[in-house]
């Protein structure tokens, strides 16, 4: 398993709404086309309306590379910059979990 935790901070409320729309469109493609993407969850942060947290879990690094190569992901990566003031990315090394393939 290979994972990411990404914290995005949007520029303002209008940017947050546009970012959420972009996330929804991109998520539809991910669900339909990426069997190697095990979890792709997006959360709002309670009490911090401009922040979003993504939790992404991939079957392996090859599945992540497939994800990153998709046209809709490249579009997301380009378009998101218009809406964001900061991005923090943590790469995760899976240890254990419930409800995911490859439980240890």
Automatic annotation (TrEMBL):
<feature type="domain" description="ABM">
    <location>
        <begin position="2"/>
        <end position="94"/>
    </location>
</feature>
<protein>
    <submittedName>
        <fullName>Antibiotic biosynthesis monooxygenase</fullName>
    </submittedName>
</protein>
<dbReference type="Pfam" id="PF03992">
    <property type="entry name" value="ABM"/>
</dbReference>
<dbReference type="GO" id="GO:0004497">
    <property type="term" value="F:monooxygenase activity"/>
</dbReference>
<dbReference type="InterPro" id="IPR011008">
    <property type="entry name" value="Dimeric_a/b-barrel"/>
</dbReference>
<keyword id="KW-0503">Monooxygenase</keyword>
<dbReference type="InterPro" id="IPR007138">
    <property type="entry name" value="ABM_dom"/>
</dbReference>
<keyword id="KW-0560">Oxidoreductase</keyword>
């Amino acid at each position: 398993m290979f994972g990411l935790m990404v914290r995005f901070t949007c520029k303002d409320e209008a940017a947050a709404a546009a970012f959420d729309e972009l996330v929804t469109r991109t998520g539809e493609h991910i669900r339909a086309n990426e069997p190697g993407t095990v979890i792709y969850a997006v959360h709002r942060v309670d009490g911090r309306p401009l922040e979003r947290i993504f939790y992404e879990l991939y079957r392996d690094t090859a599945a992540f590379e497939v994800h990153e190569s998709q046209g809709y992901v490249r579009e997301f990566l380009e378009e998101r910059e218009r809406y964001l003031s900061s991005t923090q990315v943590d790469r995760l090394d899976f240890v254990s979990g419930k409800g995911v393939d490859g439980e240890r």
